[in-house]
Design brief:
The chain contains three helices and eight strands. By secondary structure, the protein is an alpha+beta fold. The protein has one domain: Jelly Rolls. The longest helix is centred in the first third of the chain and has 24 residues. The chain is elongated. The two termini are 46 Å apart.
């Protein structure tokens, strides 16, 4: 009889704890979304030798800093540009993610997309780079909780 009572109490505790878990964790934060125009009026074809978005020409990059308010995934899209633009997500001076058009087919549908996961408090630079194009590009980023 004591075995049944102990088993019944254990099941009740597990059921109550399971029901409370989502309430304790709370809802996920709403996604963060922002759009802006990147301006880089001086094309930098040195990216071929230096790597994606490491051009040496002043005014060829547009940097925007993003700091993760919670753990999540950052996805960045860049479009609305003429010619060839590239994009990199830079963390601690190194490209953590990048997108660069590689073929003529890619250039006919100009869009760059890059993303990766970030821990809370991590800072990343969203770098839009004018390789050989017009002076502006449209950038949109979305940050969603994991």
């Amino acid at each position: 009889m004591r075995t049944r009572t102990a088993l019944g109490v254990s099941l009740a505790v597990v059921t109550v704890a399971g029901a409370m878990s989502p309430a304790v964790a709370g809802p996920k934060p709403a996604p963060i979304k922002k759009s802006y125009t990147a301006t880089a009026s001086n094309p930098s074809p040195t990216n071929i030798a230096d790597g994606v978005c490491f051009g040496r020409v002043p005014g060829s990059n547009h940097d925007t800093t993003f700091k993760a308010p919670f753990a999540g995934r950052l996805t960045v899209k860049m479009n609305g540009f003429q010619g060839d633009w590239d994009m990199a997500l830079v963390q601690d001076g190194t490209n953590s993610a990048e997108s660069a058009q590689a073929t003529e087919e890619d250039i006919s549908r100009p869009e760059e997309v890059a993303g990766f996961k970030l821990k809370k408090g991590v800072e990343v630079i969203i770098r839009a780079c004018n390789f050989s194009g017009g002076p502006t590009a449209s950038v949109t980023y979305t940050f969603t909780a994991l």
